[in-house]
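BUG: 3D viewer hangs when loading the predicted structure for this chain

Environment: internal workstation, default settings.
Expected: structure renders.
Actual: progress bar stalls at 90%.

Input used:
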Amino acid sequence: MAIRCNKCKTLLYRYHKGGKGALVKCFVERISEDHTEQEGVCPSCETQFARRTLVRGTPAFKIIGNKAVMGK
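Structure tokens produced before the viewer hung:
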């Protein structure tokens, strides 16, 4: 699954999502391709789309508002 910036549609991650719900967080271990240069910042428009956090002891990126969207 492709995770893209909602502002400029740049590809941020290729991600293996579990479940059917909305994109709230991305577990670091499930990211197969990382196209970002800075953690949680879009390389094209430099919008911060996520913050690094721990979810149940596992490193993850928490998506800020609606700044990143899922696609195919």
